[in-house]
């Protein structure tokens, strides 16, 4: 399984890819939301590898390990956990054209727009800032643009 450093490296690469994709053609909101999520996945997996030498493949296992109300040594702050869960929902919407809230059983098509990308960026920014601070790791500062995005930096 990948190490802490390998997951951090992948997070950094994903962030650079996100910035590049956003600059080249910012209309692919679904792909950009997906990249936001997988950037967070690697940051979270780095944390799991560092804290408890945990290596999960299923998202439910990851969320259980991160859950601030659980007993896992890898649990994280509630605000960061909720951002991760919401980002997962937005990426699910982008990939499967379903509503980002699993409770919504609507069968109609749910597209991903710039407002969803803006939400994804805000959640990713919180997650990256949390792990950057917790582990004192370098993360690139990237610039992103979208009509619904008021703050354009991932720090």
In short:
With about 160 residues, the protein is mainly alpha-helical.
What does this structure look like?
It is globular, with a radius of gyration of 15 Å. The chain has a two-stranded antiparallel ribbon. The protein contains five helices and two strands. The two termini are 27 Å apart. With 155 residues, the chain is mostly helical. The chain has one domain (4-154): Nucleotidyltransferases  domain 2 (Four Helix Bundle (Hemerythrin (Met), subunit A)).
Strand content: under 5%
Outline the low-pLDDT stretches: none
Write the CATH fold name: Four Helix Bundle (Hemerythrin (Met), subunit A)
Would you identify the CATH architecture? Answer: Up-down Bundle
Radius of gyration: 15 Å
Helix-strand string: HHHHHEE
Distance between the termini: 27 Å
Count the strands?
2
Q: Identify the strand order in the major beta sheet.
A: 1-2
Per CATH, the class reads Mainly Alpha
Write the layout of secondary structure elements.
Layout: H1 4-24, H2 29-52, H3 59-66, H4 78-96, H5 114-135, E1 142-143, E2 153-154
Antiparallel strand pairs: 1-2
Keywords, separated by commas or semicolons:
Four Helix Bundle (Hemerythrin (Met), subunit A), mainly alpha, two-stranded antiparallel ribbon, globular, 3% strand, 155 residues
């Amino acid at each position: 399984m990948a190490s802490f450093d390998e997951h951090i490296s992948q997070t950094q690469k994903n962030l650079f890819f996100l910035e590049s994709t956003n600059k080249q053609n910012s209309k692919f909101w679904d792909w950009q939301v997906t990249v936001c999520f997988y950037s967070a996945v690697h940051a979270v997996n780095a944390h799991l590898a560092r804290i408890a030498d945990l290596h999960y493949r299923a998202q439910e296992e990851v969320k259980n390990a991160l859950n601030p109300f659980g007993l896992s040594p890898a649990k994280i702050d509630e605000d960061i956990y909720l951002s991760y869960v919401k980002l997962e929902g937005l990426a699910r919407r982008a990939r499967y054209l379903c509503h980002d809230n699993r409770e919504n059983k609507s069968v109609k098509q749910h597209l991903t727009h710039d407002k969803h990308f803006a939400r994804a960026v805000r959640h990713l920014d919180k997650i990256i800032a949390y792990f950057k601070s917790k582990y004192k790791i370098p993360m690139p500062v990237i610039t992103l643009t979208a009509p619904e995005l008021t703050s354009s930096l991932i720090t």
